[in-house]
């Protein structure tokens, strides 16, 4: 566009002023100039574009006002008035300006722009004139004239900078609107936006500037929204040059591109239509830090509240999800942190995130696994519907993480969800049901070995599951229904937790009792304590008040409120203000949290009993809480039963006992049984203080002992023995009628009397041992065990449910238990009754459960009797006087039950064996029985046996460490001393008939490896060399079971040789010198007069032999057991069938095909040396 020729003013260039306005020159004062200019401003304000005559008349004045005198006048008021005039001139003369010189126009607009700075002060007297100036410029779009100027960009940049700098929170909406109109017209009507001009807008979006001038940010935001169609191309070009082409020099804002993208996206995603594909390119950058920056940006974009980017740009979303698997740890961490916001703001994307969070929940980096949990829990706390079952499952898995920090976060997170949705019901029953598994899972963690896990579970239980801050009634209601809803394992864990806390209270009481002794005696016990206990003991010794508070805390009569006061006082006494971290105080807090009775006291038990009464009466909220009344009653009694062990004093009230008496009269057998046990645990003062309860209770107990269920009878007898002073009279009143009424022809009526008689004889042996002897001889053995009155079911099943077992067999099982209880009560073998009983039990095992061998009894019943006989021998072995008379043959028969043909027999026997061993009740030799489990055909059984071995070995080693006196009993405690028993047991394994047969040797090797692998995990105190020396010493003895049997001794030596090779294969340290001389059990090994040393050539240790000595990979259900024809074990071969893994409740443990083997054993060679050479040759050949 060509500018027109400058117009000539009328009157030969003479300037015409409005009427009453004198000439304005530099000769007059500033005040006069201002006065005259105001009149000029008034004149121009009143003119409009149609005033052609006036326009021509005042043209000269218009040109005069653009002179240097006015544009550079030092007076602010003069400049403002001139600017207003110029703005009106542009309005009046539009669309043609009277100024045609480009330079003059530039000077004028820069001058006007500078005057706009006056808008900043809204309280200025001249602000209205500044506003008029802005309004005029915006309405006329005066700055559009500058589009024709070559350097118009300079004017626009200055204008934008000015407007962004002057806007503030004192400006009203009109000011902002005019600024917006002025700038948007320049952007929308121009040919494009230069980078410099774009920078003046975008710089206001940068966080630093945004925080300095919020109004400038809002103005830029509104401007971009209005001009999105025009400015988007310019923005795309800017980001293209910076992101793709790497030209950071194009703008000073290049280093802020990611901040700008975030802000622009928040303003209007349309501004970034062309930019998003560039981000996808950046996500695949080779620079980890660059990927991290892009991931941080996109996380904010995708996670924004109303963002639809994920649905609108699926390729970018998928590319972003791929960064969850980035090799760069910070990138993966950022992705996981983003997931929390995404889940909360965009639940529809949860499915996409789930699979990636699953992988990250197993990330090798602890911090990432931790943040996965935080992400899921935070979303769940906001709204449980935001997290699906899979996501919660990831948190559940991490409760078993190898790192404590991760486990703690997972456990605490689940606890918070449980408290919010299950306890407080913040989202209704449906949500509570969704996470009902949390309570069980948290309590299951108490089974973990780590003390940190146990302490956290206790803390979670006290603060989140049953908050101790609740009032007593609410707290007990919470506990009552929680206990009713827990699964079996969770109940066991909770019971164990209470028992551990009770045991700890007992230990603290013992410590306090020591302080009541003379100083010298007390000091002797504390010297061997750990550092914490030493300091704690010292503090207790120095502070009598502290001891008093602690004694009150562990007192059986301490209430929950008193406990809180005691804990607070003790903590206050041990707090040192000048010490920011106090590990000792933290340990004391842990101790106090565990021993303080924050849940249970007399008031709490009373509240529980009231809840139980309501359930019995049918007035409780059982159904509303999600449990049936029967379940609530039964679980409530079980809860009270457990608490009766740990808090017996809290039960001592007539009200509580009256409620328990009502439970005794109920038809539910389990309820009555639990009630009796509660009386047994808590009723020591009933006889002296509650006579009415006593008179009501005695006949009920008598009735239960005579005609109740077996469990009720047992508890009734024990209850009478525990709480009554005249127990002898009471027990005699039960014993005599029961002993007279025994009748083997009615076996279903025998079970309860046999249980009662057995327990009576065990509890009061002095009174009833003699009468029991005649009952045992004449009735138990002769009339019951040695007779088969009924014919069993011939369906061929090896196992049947408890309901399917015949009454006669159930009576026989109870008869066997009666024998054991009778002997355990006497605890002596003066009458040789124990020898007779052991022979009877052995005969039952030899006859496979069919003692009479009349073949009337079914296979499933025979399995029950074999299990009972094996368990009876094991029970007797727990009493030292009977263990000494158990012969090696009887021990072997008992041990071989673990290889029984019936899966359930093996399973139950192994569990009983483990429980007795782990409590250190059974002698060490019985641990050797687990070696035979290597031959079990079921993988699960082998795995269980290995876990039992690990646990037992760990318990024994820990016991030796914790008990200095145990050093004197190492032979009976040290796990390594199981090896001689194992070798002897394997040498007499009925499967081991052909010492030169490869398959049999391989089985022996597997059994040895099964035990030795666990024993030799660590070489503590040169134990490997000790094992080697022990085995070598056995080779210098004879088999004490049959010292003159050459074949038996050869088998013993062969097992030793295989053991030596297994040890050598496992450890290179076994060849070191061992100063300790192992002690061998004389019951099993007879020292020879002349030691026989067995030497083998090292050259026979071929690679094939070394390979053979490696552990054989066990098949899932491989056939390992071999057919047997030996007393006490049935002939069977295992096949891979579904019945191999049948559970205890299975009604069918299918009989497996039987085969026979040649009973003739190979003749031994002339010398033992030749026997060994043949064996090694066989190994090398194979």
Automatic annotation (TrEMBL):
Gene Ontology annotations for the cellular component aspect, listed alphabetically: chromatin; nucleus
Biased composition range(s): Low complexity: 1133-1155
Gene3D superfamilies in the cross-refs: Leucine-rich Repeat Variant
Major location (coarse): nucleus
Keyword terms, alphabetized: Cell cycle, Cell division, Mitosis, Nucleus, Repeat
UniProt-annotated location(s): Nucleus
PANTHER family in alphabetical order: ANDROGEN INDUCED INHIBITOR OF PROLIFERATION AS3 / PDS5-RELATED (PTHR12663), SISTER CHROMATID COHESION PROTEIN PDS5 HOMOLOG A (PTHR12663:SF2)
The protein's name in its UniProt record: PDS5 cohesin associated factor A
């Amino acid at each position: 566009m060509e500018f027109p020729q400058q117009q000539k003013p009328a009157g030969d260039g003479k300037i015409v002023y409005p009427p009453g306005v004198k000439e304005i020159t530099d000769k007059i004062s500033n005040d006069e100039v201002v006065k005259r200019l105001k009149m000029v401003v008034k004149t121009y304000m009143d003119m409009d574009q149609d005033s052609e005559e006036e326009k021509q008349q005042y043209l000269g004045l218009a040109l005069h006002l653009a002179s240097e005198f006015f544009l550079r006048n030092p007076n602010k008021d003069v400049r403002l008035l001139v600017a207003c005039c110029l703005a009106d001139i542009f309005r009046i003369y539009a669309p043609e300006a009277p100024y045609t010189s480009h330079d003059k126009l530039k000077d004028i607009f820069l001058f006007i722009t500078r005057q706009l700075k006056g808008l900043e002060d809204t309280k200025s007297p001249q602000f209205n004139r500044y506003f008029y100036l802005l309004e005029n410029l915006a309405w006329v779009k005066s700055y559009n004239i500058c589009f024709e100027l070559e350097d118009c960009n300079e004017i626009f940049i200055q204008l934008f900078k000015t407007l962004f700098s002057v806007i503030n929170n004192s400006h009203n909406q009109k000011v902002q609107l005019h600024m917006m109109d002025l700038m948007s017209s320049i952007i929308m009507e121009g040919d494009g936006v230069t980078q410099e001009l774009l920078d003046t807008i975008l710089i206001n979006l940068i966080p630093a500037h945004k925080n300095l001038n919020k109004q400038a940010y809002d103005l830029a935001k509104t401007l971009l929204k209005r001009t999105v169609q025009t400015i988007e191309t310019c923005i795309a070009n800017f980001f293209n040059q910076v992101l793709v082409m790497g030209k950071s020099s194009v703008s000073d804002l290049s280093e802020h591109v990611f901040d700008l993208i975030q802000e622009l996206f928040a303003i209007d995603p349309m501004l970034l239509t062309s930019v998003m594909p560039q981000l996808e390119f950046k996500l695949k950058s080779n620079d980890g830090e660059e990927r991290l920056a892009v991931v941080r940006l996109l996380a904010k974009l995708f996670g924004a509240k109303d963002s639809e980017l994920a649905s609108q740009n699926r390729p970018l979303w998928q590319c972003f999800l791929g960064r969850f698997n980035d090799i760069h740890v910070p990138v993966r961490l950022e992705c996981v942190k983003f997931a929390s916001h995404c889940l909360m703001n965009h639940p529809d994307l949860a499915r996409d995130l789930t699979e990636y969070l699953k992988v990250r929940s197993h990330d090798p980096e602890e911090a990432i696994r931790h943040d996965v949990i935080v992400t899921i829990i935070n979303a769940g706390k906001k709204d449980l519907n935001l997290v699906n079952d899979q996501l919660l499952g990831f948190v559940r898995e991490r409760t078993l993480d190898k790192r404590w920090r991760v486990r703690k976060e997972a456990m605490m997170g689940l606890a918070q969800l449980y408290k919010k949705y299950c306890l407080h019901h913040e989202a209704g029953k449906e949500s509570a049901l969704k996470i009902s598994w949390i309570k069980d899972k948290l309590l299951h963690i108490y089974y973990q070995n780590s003390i940190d896990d146990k302490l956290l579970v206790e803390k979670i239980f006290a603060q989140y599951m049953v908050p101790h801050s609740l009032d007593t009634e609410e707290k007990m209601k919470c506990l009552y229904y929680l206990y009713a809803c827990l699964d079996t394992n969770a109940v066991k864990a909770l019971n164990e937790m209470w028992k551990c806390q009770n045991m700890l209270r007992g230990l603290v009481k013992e410590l306090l009792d020591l302080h009541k002794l003379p100083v010298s005696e007390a000091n002797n016990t504390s010297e061997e304590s750990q550092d914490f206990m030493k300091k704690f003991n010292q503090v207790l010794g120095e502070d009598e008040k502290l001891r008093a508070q602690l004694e009150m805390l562990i007192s059986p009569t301490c209430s929950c409120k008193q406990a809180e006061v005691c804990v607070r006082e003790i903590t206050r006494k041990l707090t040192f203000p000048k010490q920011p971290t106090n590990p000792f105080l933290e340990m004391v807090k842990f101790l106090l949290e565990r021993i303080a009775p924050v849940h249970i006291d007399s008031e709490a038990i009373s509240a529980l009993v009231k809840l139980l009464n309501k359930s019995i009466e049918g007035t409780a909220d059982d159904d509303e809480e999600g449990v049936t009344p029967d379940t609530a009653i039964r679980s409530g009694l079980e809860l009270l039963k457990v608490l009766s062990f740990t808090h017996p004093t809290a039960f001592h009230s007539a009200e509580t006992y009256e409620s328990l008496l009502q439970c005794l009269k109920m038809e539910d057998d389990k309820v009555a049984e639990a009630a009796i046990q509660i009386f047994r645990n808590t009723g020591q003062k009933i006889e002296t203080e509650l006579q009415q309860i006593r008179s009501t209770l005695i006949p009920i107990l008598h009735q239960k002992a005579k005609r109740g269920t077996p469990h009720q009878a047992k508890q009734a007898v024990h209850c009478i023995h525990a709480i009554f002073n005249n127990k002898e009279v009471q027990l005699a009143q039960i014993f005599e009628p029961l002993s007279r009424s025994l009748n083997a022809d009615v076996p279903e009526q025998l079970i309860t009397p046999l249980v009662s008689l057995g327990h009576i004889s065990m509890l009061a042996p002095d009174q009833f041992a003699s009468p029991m002897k005649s009952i045992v001889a004449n009735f138990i053995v002769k009339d019951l065990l040695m007779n088969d009155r009924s014919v069993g079911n011939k369906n061929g099943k090896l196992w049947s449910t408890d309901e399917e077992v015949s009454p006669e067999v159930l009576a026989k099982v109870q008869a066997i238990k009666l024998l054991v209880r009778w002997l355990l009560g006497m605890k002596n073998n003066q009458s040789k009754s124990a020898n007779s009983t052991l022979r009877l039990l052995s005969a039952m095992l030899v006859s496979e459960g069919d003692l009479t061998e009349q073949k009337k009894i079914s296979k499933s019943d025979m399995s029950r009797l074999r299990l009972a006989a094996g368990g009876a021998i094991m029970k007797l072995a727990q009493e030292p006087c009977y263990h000494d008379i158990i012969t090696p043959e009887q021990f072997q028969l008992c041990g071989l039950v673990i290889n029984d043909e019936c899966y359930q027999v093996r399973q139950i026997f192994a569990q009983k064996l483990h429980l007795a061993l782990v409590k250190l009740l059974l002698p060490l030799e019985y641990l050797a029985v687990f070696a035979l489990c290597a031959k079990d055909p079921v993988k699960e059984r082998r795995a269980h046996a290995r876990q039992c071995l690990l646990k037992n070995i760990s318990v024994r080693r820990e016991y030796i460490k914790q008990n200095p006196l145990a050093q004197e009993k190492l032979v009976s405690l040290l796990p390594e001393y199981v090896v001689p028993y194992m070798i002897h047991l394997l040498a007499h394994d009925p499967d081991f008939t052909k010492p030169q047969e490869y398959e049999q040797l391989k089985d022996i090797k597997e059994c040895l490896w099964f035990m030795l692998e666990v024993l030799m995990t660590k070489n503590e105190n040169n134990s490997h060399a000790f094992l080697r020396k022990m085995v070598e010493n056995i080779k210098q003895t004879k088999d004490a079971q049959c010292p003159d049997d050459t074949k038996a001794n050869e088998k013993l030596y062969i097992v030793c040789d295989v053991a030596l090779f297994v040890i050598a294969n496992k450890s290179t340290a076994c060849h070191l010198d061992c100063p300790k001389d192992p002690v061998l059990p004389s019951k099993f090994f007879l020292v020879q007069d002349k030691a026989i040393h067995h030497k083998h050539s090292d050259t026979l240790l071929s690679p094939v032999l070394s390979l053979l000595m490696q552990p054989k990979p066990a098949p899932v259900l491989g056939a390992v057991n071999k057919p047997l024809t030996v007393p006490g074990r049935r002939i069977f071969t295992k096949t891979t069938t579904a019945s191999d893994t049948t559970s205890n409740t299975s009604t069918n443990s299918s009989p497996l095909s039987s085969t026979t083997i040649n009973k003739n054993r190979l003749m031994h060679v002339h010398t033992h040396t030749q026997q060994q050479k043949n064996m090694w040759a066989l190994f090398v050949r194979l």
